[in-house]
Every structure is written in structure tokens, then in C-alpha cells.
Amino acid sequence: MMTRRQAIKTTALASAAFAALPSAIAQTIATAPTTPPTPAIVGGFTLPPLPYAYDALEPHIDALTMQIHHDKHHAAYVANLNKAVTTGLPTTVSPAVETLLEDLNAVPENIRTAVRNNGGGHYNHSLFWQMMKKDGDGEPTGDLAKAVETAFGNFATFKDNFTKAALGQFGSGWAWLVLDGSALKIEATPNQDTPLSSGKTPLLGVDVWEHAYYLKYQNKRADYIIAWWNVVNWDFVAERYSKLKA
Ligand code: MN3
């Protein structure tokens, strides 16, 4: 049985979480398709299709890794997110996954960890597939190239610092290029934590969980990162940057 105090707390959190909902949904629609689709009904999150064939990123990332990563790992995050929100959210209208992750403290406590891990997993992977493509662009161009130079001096220094963040993440996690206000920064997050939860917007990320590389690279994360640079979809990152910069 829930005590009266717990009930009041849960109700207050739920109100805080959904006060801003309509505008958050509108924003999500406006930025589609670079963010995961928001279902109408709680528990209706779906696995977005890979935007290319499983073998499109060969030889840098092998087809079997892509298939298991997308069809099994990402699918499991979606299923577990749906399970959590179906049992734990006091609403029938679905918030965007971004809305949940941007204010985890507003998510009811009994599903907060599940939403953090599985909502983060769903959001991060939905972006990750789009951040890669067959025959990557090598380097950014245009406004993003200028912003990278301003923030890091030059592209080589950015690449070096990003690689260090990816190698330095102990255990499972991600390295990111993020927009923090109007500044570009590099950071690493553990597990499926996403920069959204600390008020930043991810522009580019690399998954350094072993499931992302172990079949082909075994324990050699450094070799995976070197190969991964060949499939970065800088067009996607640049478009995201121009949409999201202040
Ligand atoms: Mn992964």
C-alpha cells in the first residue's frame, strides 16, 4: 500500500512532468526525423528501422554486429521502456522520450532507473544509427566545421580529444560531441546516460559498449574507434547542429 505521503509526492511529480507536455511534443514533431518518433499512447514506443542495410558499414562495422545491435539490443531497450512507462506513468498520453530524459527527477521514482537506462538506450541508439552511413564524410563542412575550429582549434585536435574520451570511458558508455548552450564540448557518459539529462544536446556520439564492437574487434576498442571515424555521417551532424544551435 502506498502511504498518503508517497501518494502526494507521486502526484506532484506527475503534474510537474506533464505540465510542459504539449510544447515538448510539438518540438519533437518539428525536429523529426532526427529524434525518435513519439507514440500517441503510453507504451507505444517502436524500434525505428536502420536507415541502411546491415552490411552498409562494412568493413568498418560488420553486418552481424549491426544486426544484433539493432534487432536485439535496441529492441530490448524499446521493450523495457514500454514496460516501465506502461506500469509507471499516471497518464495515457505518451511523453516524448526526450521529455522523460530531460527531467528524470520528474519521472516516478519506481520507474526512474528503468527509464534512465532503457529510455536512454532508445534515444541514444535512435540517434547513433543516423550518425553513421556508408562511406562517411571524413570531416564536417560549413558552420559546423567553423564551430569545431572555434571550440577545439582544429579538426585533428577535436578528433584526438573525442577519441580519448571514448577510450577513457571505463566500462560501458558513450563519448559525445554536445551542444552546451552555444558551445561545443566533448564528454563521456556511463551506461545509457545521455547528455540530455544534464541539459546538453548530443550532436555526435559513439557507442563504446562491447556489444558495439566485440565480434570484430574483441577487446580492441581503439581499433573500433579508428574504424568508426570512417562511417561518421557529418551531413547528419551538421544538419542537427544548424537546427539546434541558438
Ligand atoms: Mn549499443
Descriptive notes:
- The N terminus is likely disordered.
- By secondary structure, this protein is mainly α.
- Among the domains are: 68 residues, Fe,Mn superoxide dismutase (SOD) domain (Helix Hairpins, Orthogonal Bundle); 104 residues, 3-Layer(bab) Sandwich (minor pseudopilin epsh fold), CATH 3.55.40.20.
- The radius of gyration is 18 Å and the shape is globular.
- β1 and β2 form a beta hairpin.
- A three-stranded antiparallel sheet has the order 2-1-3, sandwiched between helices.
- The chain starts with a helix and ends with a helix.
- The longest helix is centred in the first third of the chain and has 26 residues.
- It has ten helices and three strands.
- The site of manganese (III) ion has 7 residues, from α3.
